[in-house]
Structures are given as C-alpha cells and as structure tokens.
Amino acid sequence: MRKIELDELPKYSPWVARLLNIDPFPKPERTIAKIDAEYDKDKFAKLLQFYEQNPGIGIEELRSVEEDFLPPERELCVSQGNELFLMTAANVQRQDRQIILDSLLPYMTENRIVIELGCGYGYNLGVLTEAEPDHLFIGGDYSQNAVKLARKLFKDCPEANISKFNFYDQIWSIFDAVAERALVFTNHAIEQLPSAKSVMSILAKYREKIACVIHLEPVFEFNDPNTTLGLMRQSYTLINDYNKDLFTCLEGMGVKMLKVEKDLFGPNPLNPTSLIVWQF
Prior knowledge:
Elements: E1 2-4, H1 15-19, H2 32-53, H3 59-66, E2 75-80, E3 83-88, H4 89-108, E4 113-117, H5 123-131, E5 136-141, H6 144-153, E6 160-164, E7 182-187, H7 197-205, E8 210-217, H8 228-240, H9 246-253, E9 256-265, E10 273-279
Parallel strand pairs: 4-5, 4-7, 5-6, 7-8
Antiparallel strand pairs: 1-3, 2-3, 8-10, 9-10
Helix pairs in contact: 2-6, 4-5
C-alpha cells in the first residue's frame, strides 16, 4: 500500500472531473425506478447471467466481477480516514471482506440470528456463513435478479435464506420468521435512500425483535467540510442523491450508540465506509 496525494486522485477516479463539472454528469433522482434500472435490470441481471454461464464460480470470484476487482494486480486508489493510498485490487477485496468479519463477529457471539437488509446476492452473508456456520442468516433485497442469484449460490446452504425485500414497504415480513432477537445490519444499502427517516421508523416497529443494529455505510455527516476531500465527498453524495441523514436520524431517535468509527475504508475514496453500531 502506497500513500498518494490528493492531487493524484484524477489519475484514478473520473469523479474529480465530474464534480468540477469538466465532465458533466446528470444528477439522478434515487427513486425505486432508479434502483430497479441500475441494480435489478442492469447490475444483478448481468451477474445472474454471468453465473449461469459459469455455474462453478465461487462467491469471491463473483465479487471480483461485481466490483471490477480484475485483474487482481491492478492498482486502485482507496482511502483510510482522510488519506489516500494505492492498493492492488486483490488486497482491496481482502480488506473489504475483513471489515465485514471484524465489524460483525464480535456481536454474533450473543446473537444467533443475523439479518441483512439490502443484501444483494448475499456476498456478505456468504462471508459470515463461512466464518460462523452455526448461525441462521436471513437476507432481503429489492432486486428479484439478486434474489434469484442468491438462491442459486446458497442452494446447498440451509442456514442462509434470501427473500424479496423493499426498504420502502411499511411492513417488513423478513422479521416474521424471527423467533428471537436478531442482529440486523446493512452494508452500503441505506446509502441508496436519500433519507433514512422511514427506515428508522419501521425499525422502531420491530424493536422487540432487534438485539442491535450495525451499519457499514457512507455517512454524509462525517465528511469534514473544512477539507478538500471532505467537500468532494459531500459533493459526490449530493450529485448521486445518496443518503444524507443517517447519523442525524439516529441521534434524533435517542438510540444507544455502542460503537462509531468514521471512514474505516474507502474502496471508492469519495464514498468511504463508516461503522455505526447501536441499539434501542
């Protein structure tokens, strides 16, 4: 891993030119229709087709295709805190996987059921089932193609169950089969919701079934407006219509914060992952 300066970022990311309006980028409105087109009809449809053409592929190989971590020796610009580094694609994938394990395993010792909201095709659940196969893993995603792919991937894994799920629904049937309090987590899923208010209000309805909640998400409020990188991160969020109020919503609910770590790692340095662990 080699440290680089902010001035070098345009070599590795097209977003610098986009944010400066040198390479105009049309601002999307992140609606259900946008999610359906970008993820179900495009990203996950292509991944499902790729898997069907390569049925023996493992989940880590599929992740490499999904996140464009190929070739594995290719250098990518990543971030840790407010610093930028170059790292091989293979190491970025390993680091991303390790963050999942480090963030969730300490809380799984007391929670047998793990629910991921917005799980895609279940990559994170696959990582966790490999580490703790004696747990019950439940995932839900809006994309029907993602759910189809997940069911193919986990067809021989009875401890993992993936079903259709929509953050915008008022009733979340994903909790119906939960007989005990569960650990609930999201990973770059709240990101897709411009506001987290409705999600938090619905989570509150199921509070008796929730032991704790873990978010591995970009957090708009954590971006430092007194630095160039912080302002670029804010601009990136705004132009993509990503979430802007996760931490504000949590503070307004008065939940108990168990752990907060800002800007753990950014495979995309303009959209870094932070960790928030909380409970009602």
